């Protein structure tokens, strides 16, 4: 049986770090098992679903490199759900109920006051045909509940181990609203059966739904898939993430300049038995991935950890991936330059500063008189061409002998004059890339002798 998984967001908002993690886990699981990854847009809620969000979800997954093998929209599959509903009605497992929200609320209140769990009492099952007719004639429209079986439902959860839910603690779930529209449960089960989903990987906020969905699958004559309920991400302080999701969208991270590999690596490794780690090669990440490594305890989202992973991704990002991204930002570096510069970046756009150092202009630093004299000497002692990574050492050793300077006094004025910065890539690697012409003119300009363009 080949693996088929689905990521099933409702297009009622943008992808954020919490739900994109579910997408990543599904995608990796499919990848690891050479299976299929389906995007299913749960858009039966026509009030809240928007095409704009559906498009954004598709685009964001694409940007992350999580391309689905197929995309389905539940709004285009209503006939299948109608058929399933009919089948359940025929079997007496989907029954009409006429209570209003208010009546239900009163019942719950009475049950709670009597110390009983607020479970629906199935009084609609006792309605005679005449009583139903009278209610309909009085203008009431039914909502439809699935009659849960007796006993409990158990399954072996790939993350949580054995789970058992006593169905007598649950109300018969409403599958169809008064206006005839479907709630999430039935379409989800019908689609999981129709799409031959083998594994449902989703947040642990769905554990109770799973018991209902297993019962419903069986009622429809199907075999339930395997389930894996990962713990939801929480905020750094342990509180729910949902309140802060506004700023934690995949789009926000993209705008901030994060790399897709950082987000995917973060989602794949946070809340696992191992440390958070950066991966460039998605296949290597998939090879290491196992649902069993996901922890049952809620993981905490830490934006700083994500930023640190982004730096790790850049430090390892190969030239063929980096150059097109740099080009999109209007930054022109070649491979040799990228390999020297990348170790200094936390965000890709910072490469622009190094592009200026390598190809553009820098402002000459303000230096003390004795450093300016030193830079003049440094210009006079520049080694012969051609330059390579040994040139810096040869040059600074000659300068040390000539001037008696050492350590910071020897190196810092050179770095400042050549890059305009106190920190940066190794000078031995940077120097040949800056090249003799720019090096000479920058030294002389910092020494106070204008020498053409810097
Ligand atoms: N649309 C549901 C959600 O976003 C899907 C849950 C599931 O994976 O079945 O919570």
Task: Please give a structural write-up.
The chain is mainly α and 454 residues long. The protein folds into 4 domains: 4-74 and 184-234, HUPs (Rossmann fold, 3-Layer(aba) Sandwich); 80-176, Glutamyl-tRNA Synthetase, domain 3 (Alpha-Beta Complex), CATH 3.90.800; 320-359, no CATH class; 369-451, Arc Repressor Mutant, subunit A (Orthogonal Bundle), CATH 1.10.10. Helix content is 46%, strand content 10%. A 3-stranded parallel beta sheet has the order 1-2-3. The longest helix is centred in the last third of the chain and has 20 residues, at 427-446. The N and C termini lie far apart (66 Å). Bound molecules: glutamic acid. Glutamic acid (GLU) binds at residues 8-10, 42, 184, 188, 202, 206.
- So how many helices? 18
Bound compounds, each kind once, are:
glutamic acid
Remind me, CATH topology of the largest domain?
Rossmann fold
* Number of E strands: 10
Number of folding domains?
4
CATH superfamily of the largest domain: HUPs
Provide the gyration radius in Å. 32 Å
Derived from helix and strand composition plus strand pairing, the structural class reads mainly alpha
Name the assembly state.
Answer: single chain
Can you tell me the CATH architecture of the largest domain?
3-Layer(aba) Sandwich
- The CATH class assignment of the largest domain is Alpha Beta
Indicate the overall shape. Answer: elongated
Characterize the main sheet.
3 strands, parallel
Spatial sequence of strands, sheet with the most strands: 1-2-3
Give the mean pLDDT: 95
The helix fraction, in percent, is: 40-55%
């Amino acid at each position: 049986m080949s693996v088929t998984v689905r990521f099933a967001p409702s297009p009622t908002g943008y992808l954020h770090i919490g739900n994109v993690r579910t997408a990543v886990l599904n995608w990796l699981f499919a990848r690891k098992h050479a299976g299929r990854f389906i995007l299913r847009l749960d858009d039966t809620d026509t009030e809240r679903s928007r095409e704009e969000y559906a498009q954004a979800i598709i685009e964001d997954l694409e940007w992350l490199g999580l391309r689905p093998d197929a995309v389905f929209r539940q709004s285009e599959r209503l006939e299948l759900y109608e058929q399933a509903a009919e089948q359940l009605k025929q079997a007496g497992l989907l029954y009409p109920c006429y209570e209003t929200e208010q009546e239900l609320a009163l019942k719950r209140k009475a049950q709670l006051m009597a110390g009983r769990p607020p479970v629906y009492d199935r009084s609609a099952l006792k309605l005679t045909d005449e009583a139903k007719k009278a209610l309909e004639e009085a203008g009431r429209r039914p909502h439809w509940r699935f009659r849960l079986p007796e006993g409990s439902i158990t399954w072996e959860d790939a993350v949580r181990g054995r789970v058992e839910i006593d169905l007598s603690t649950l109300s018969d779930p409403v599958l169809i609203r008064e206006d005839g529209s479907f709630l999430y449960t039935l379409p989800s089960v019908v689609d999981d059966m129709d799409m031959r989903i083998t594994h449902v990987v989703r947040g642990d906020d769905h554990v109770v739904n799973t018991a209902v969905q297993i019962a419903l699958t069986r009622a429809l004559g199907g075999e339930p898939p395997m389930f894996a309920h990962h713990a939801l991400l929480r905020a750094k302080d342990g509180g729910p993430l949902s309140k802060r999701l506004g700023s934690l969208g995949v789009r926000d991270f993209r705008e901030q300049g994060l790399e897709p590999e950082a987000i995917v690596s973060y989602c794949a490794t946070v809340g696992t038995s191992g440390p958070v780690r950066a991966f460039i090669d998605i296949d290597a990440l998939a090879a290491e991935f196992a649902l069993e490594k996901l922890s049952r305890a809620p993981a905490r989202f830490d934006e700083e950890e994500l930023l640190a992973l982004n730096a790790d991704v850049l430090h390892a990002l190969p030239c063929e991936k980096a150059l097109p991204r740099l080009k999109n930002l209007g930054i022109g570096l070649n491979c040799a330059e990228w390999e020297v510069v990348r170790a200094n970046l936390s965000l890709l756009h910072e490469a622009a500063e190094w592009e200026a150092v390598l190809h553009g202009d820098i402002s000459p630093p303000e230096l003390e008189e004795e450093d300016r004299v030193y830079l003049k000497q440094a210009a006079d002692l520049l080694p012969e061409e051609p330059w390579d990574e040994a040139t810096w050492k040869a040059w600074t050793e000659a300068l040390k002998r000539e001037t008696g300077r050492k350590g910071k006094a020897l190196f810092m004025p050179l770095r400042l004059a050549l890059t305009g910065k106190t920190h940066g890539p190794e000078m031995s690697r940077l120097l040949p890339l800056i090249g003799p012409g720019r090096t000479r003119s920058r030294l002389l300009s910092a020494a106070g002798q204008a020498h053409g363009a810097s």
